[in-house]
Amino acid sequence: MNQPTDSKAKPPAVAGNSGKASSALTDWEKRILGPTLAKSPERQKEFTTTSLYPIRRLYTEADLDGWDPASDLSLPGEPPYTRGIHASMYRSRLWTMRQFAGFGTAEDTNQRFRYLLAHGQTGLSTAFDLPTLMGYDSDHPLSEGEVGKCGVAISSLDDMEVLFDQIPLIDVTTSMTINSPAAVVWAMYLAVAEKQGADWKRISGTLQNDILKEYIAQKEYIYPPEPSMRIVIDTFEFGMKQTPKFNVISISGYHIREAGSTAIQELAFTLRDGMEYVEWALRRGLKVDEFAPQLSFFFNAHNDFFEEIAKYRAARRIWYKAMTERYKAQNPRSWALRFHTQTAGCSLTAQQPMNNVVRTAIQALAGVLGGTQSLHTNSLDEAWALPTEFAATIALRTQQIIAHETGVTNTVDPLGGSYFVEALTNEVEQAAWDYVRRIDAMGGMVAAIENGYPQREIAEASYRYQMAVDKKEKIIVGVNDYVTAEKPLEILQIDESVAHRQAARLNKLRADRSSAEVERRLNALRRAAEGSENLMPFIYDAVKAYATLGEVCEAMRTVFGAYEEVAIT
Amino acid sequence: MRMPEKRIRVLIAKPGLDGHDRGAKVIARALRDAGMEVIYTGLRQTPEMIASAAVQEDVDVIGLSILSGAHNTLCPQLMKLLHEKGMQDVTVLVGGIIPEADIPGLKQAGIAEIFLPGTSTQHIIDFIHKRVAQPR
Q1: Taking the domain A89-470, which CATH number applies?
Q2: Model ipTM?
Q3: What 3 state SS string does A396-438 have?
């Protein structure tokens, strides 16, 4: 498979490889397999992955016909990075253990952050509440009932200062899961860094900032695609000049998968999203090697162990080929796909929740064997609520056990060369390229989204999966089999006092700041939005004067308008 | 298969700011495949919008999908509005991430049933058929 985008999927039947191997296989089928099957027939007619992708009985070298270990596998740290992006992987440095956390007020979450850091977590990851994700202040009428529930409520720089109180941003890398208002929250983060005296050139972290997957899957968008893409490219341009170590985007398959996609769809849509961002940045006039090293990715780790591992390996290979062939990147740092992994929230069950510890451990192991750079492990109680401290601690300990007790970190890419893993990696890659070509033919991802294409594909896959579960073709332990009576779990409750505390803080903020200055800076932002200047400096100026998140987003909403999707069911 | 004279009409709604619509879409399609007339409101509906749609579409059942933790605010608001509009007979169901401790309060507010993660679509279909035995 030296011709990357031309590589063929392996045919499911045994193909003629070397005559010796193939005749040995035929002989085995007759002599050994046949009588075995006659005595003990297989449990199912068809074996499939969680994504309902068919898996064959046995993989041998016949399944790797045409596969060239020198070019398709290569060595770790070398193109096409199938075996990982670093030569020594976890022998040198473990993945970053980065638990996603956020609830209540900035003060509540600051305490959880400091607790996690004290227990050996090595990076921070911020979950924001729904009003923040949608660009509304905590006291907006639409925020009622949602403040601090799904994450931390951040309405202004004032809240951001509390969130990172006593956390040195020069040392700790922070991931921020926010998309439509990403530029605004990032500006607040940079303002906190500046106040702490942390050099922007040296701070590091990740802004999710992936609006395309919002239209595709998670649906937390504010503006229509065009202006949203403009803001994203503004952050690329700002980041490559001002914060060279910051990942300005985390191109995310996680939410696509949670919305019910297959592993192949997750891979394909995410990578095609990545290509879309590159193409918009190139159209802006940015040079690929100036911004591409700051692009990062984020994948799901679902239950089907080998399918997930194949997905990560294929992702690196696809990105390498896209960057070198499609975009002619010269810098190896543009070629290597770096990614964060989170175990699959949608795989966790409300029933027998302790079993979720086991699911999460296996999913996390797939992320590690797939060569992830950072990892979040879900807590056992997530089908009920946000995690308690008890549940969050077990989730972190799960990663530490994988890192220090299982031995899987002792060698690089321990599964490299497995007939099954390599064949599945090839097949998954090929199927993803098929999707990429289909989306290319539609005119790119923005056009495909406007046609509802990825949304329909995902809805279809999610329905097929639900039907398979309902018919017990797929067994979920504790849900459609092995069901037992159980006692309710102790969970984290977030009451409405959070909303009241936030409203009081906002009232005080609005009284204490200079309204005239805020208005002046918001006007400047509106004017810039009407033109074509980079919006980041204007957003930064506004938040520095304590304009609220809601005010800044509203200023842009008046210029850009709000997006409404055509609902597909 | 014998079709009833009048099909059961269901409004599937996503109240609040959350955009996770996987469950809403799956249930909308499953109910449709089971022969019901399904109207999906789309995302980010206020209780006021949902109540108005329920009146306008003259539905037998409203299915709310809530995963964000805002159920204790949104459900009572909707029930109050339905009462005001004379729609107290409509069956209101909730599916999503709902802590068990909140279930009695929601039922007291008039929610007919709460379906937690892991519920089969057939179970929900059966529940609706039993509850709305005679379509209005």
Answers
A1: 3.20.20.240
A2: 0.91
A3: HHHHHHHHHCCCCCCCCCCCCCCHHHHHHHHHHHHHHHHHHHH
